[in-house]
Design brief:
This protein is about 40% helix and about 15% strand. By secondary structure, the chain is α/β, with parallel strands linked by helices. It has 2 domains: about 5-155, Four Helix Bundle (Hemerythrin (Met), subunit A), CATH 1.20.120; about 155-360, 3-Layer(aba) Sandwich (Rossmann fold), CATH 3.40.50.10470. The strands form 3 sheets. The chain has a 7-stranded mixed beta sheet with strand order 6-5-4-7-10-13-14, sandwiched between helices. A 4-stranded mixed beta sheet has the order 11-8-9-12, covered by helices on one side. Helix 3 (about 90-105) runs antiparallel to helix 4 (about 110-120). The longest helix has about 35 residues, at about 135-165. Bound molecules: 5-S-methyl-1-O-phosphono-5-thio-D-ribulose (MRU). 5-S-methyl-1-O-phosphono-5-thio-D-ribulose binds near residues 62, 177 and 266.
Length: about 375
């Protein structure tokens, strides 16, 4: 197999992570190491919480829903640590809670991570104080699996709603929002692949997504694995492409959506939304309800992760700037609600985007 494009085994769909079971619920988390794609398909075993956190921070596993699921399985790994170390029931629970905080804060922008960790922790609160580590582990594993399974179903529903919304013609997406970013087939990318499977005449364009190339390395890889043609463009070509009239719609994912509909997503999303508006092209955002943070109103209150200068100055490890140059490397930006044509959730489409529409769709009205 040439290193330039690794393929997964025939019949297997791309997939970001899996739980590898061991007796007593003391298995470990396996993540497909996305930093190696598209050159190599290699799984990485995370047998302790520092390994899970390292995988999340280094983007071996990435994408808002996928890091949430990784965080939930990370708690099972934490309970496994307590069991291996022979901790008492009280110490085991305290250990899991402390590890939960470390996991939840591994990356700050995607709300799915803290959401999933808190949900999994809530599943152990009804357990009696004397519940030992293996009982805690079993309860956490049940909940992590539930979160994972639910995400598969949410992706399917989002894919269906999104596909029904997409027009035929050019569809431009940014970053990676597919199977590699979720527990199922994806969000925005699921809309695209569903429309394709429906036989709709669409042409997929993927921004390469600097500086970590999730668009060219991951989205193009996923689409190619599925036999869907894709055209990759440098991020700065998006304006020219939109001006050419070849794009009928843009669709992207989200890391956090506020109660008012402001959207945090991969850096470059905001610029794309402004360009789409300037050219009269609809700009859709697809995300599950776990990506909404209704405690926050304004996008200005979303914490934006800043990553290392090396990612910008030496992309993919190749120096691209002189020594001594500094870098500005926000991993995400915020697109204000008024630039978003519609939000696509598993519960339906919110259009126009408004606080009331969001509350109604998420069942808060
Ligand atoms: O830094 P990343 O690769 O984790 O960023 C991912 C994105 O910005 C995705 O668009 C978002 O998480 C949605 S994934 C369904």
């Amino acid at each position: 197999m040439p290193e330039s494009m690794a393929r997964i085994a025939a019949g297997n769909e791309p997939c970001a992570l899996r739980w590898i079971d061991a007796p007593g619920g003391h298995g470990h988390l396996g993540v497909l190491d996305q930093t190696l794609l598209p050159g190599r398909v290699a799984w990485r075993d995370c047998r302790d919480v520092p390994a899970v956190i390292e995988a999340i921070r280094s983007l071996r596993v990435r994408g808002a829903p996928a890091i949430g699921i990784a965080g939930a399985y990370g708690l099972v790994v934490a309970a496994g640590e307590a069991w291996r170390d022979g901790l008492s029931a009280a110490s085991a629970r305290a250990h899991v809670l402390a590890r939960g905080e470390e996991l939840a804060s591994a990356r700050p922008t995607a709300v799915n991570l803290r959401w999933a960790v808190e949900r999994a922790l809530a599943a152990i609160s009804p357990l009696p104080d004397e519940a030992p580590a293996d009982v805690i582990a079993a309860a956490l594993l049940d909940e992590a699996r539930r979160i994972h399974d639910e995400d598969r179903r949410l992706c399917e529903a989002i894919g269906r709603h999104g596909a029904d919304l997409l027009p035929e013609g050019g569809i431009l997406t940014h970053c990676n929002t597919g199977a590699l970013a979720t527990g199922g087939d994806g969000t925005a990318l699921a809309a695209i692949t569903t429309a394709w499977r429906d036989g709709r005449r669409i042409e997929v364009f993927a921004d390469e997504t600097r500086p970590l190339f999730q668009g060219s390395r991951l989205t193009a890889w996923e689409l190619t694995q599925r036999g869907i043609p894709v055209t990759v463009l440098v991020d700065s070509a998006a304006g020219h492409l939109l001006a050419s009239g070849r794009v009928a719609a843009c669709i992207v994912g989200a890391d956090r959506i506020t109660a008012a509909g402001d959207v945090a997503n991969k850096i470059g999303t905001y610029a794309l939304a402004v360009l789409a508006r300037a050219h009269g092209v609809p700009f859709y955002v697809a995300a599950p309800s776990s990506t909404f943070d209704l405690r926050i109103d304004s996008g200005a209150d979303i914490p934006i992760e800043e990553r290392t200068a090396a990612e910008v100055l030496a992309p993919l490890g190749v120096p691209a700037a002189p020594e001594g140059a500094r870098a500005f490397n926000p991993a995400f930006d915020v697109t204000p609600a008024h630039l978003v044509t519609a939000l696509v959730t598993e519960r339906g489409v919110i259009r126009p985007v408004s606080r009331e529409g969001i509350a109604q769709c998420l069942g808060r009205i």
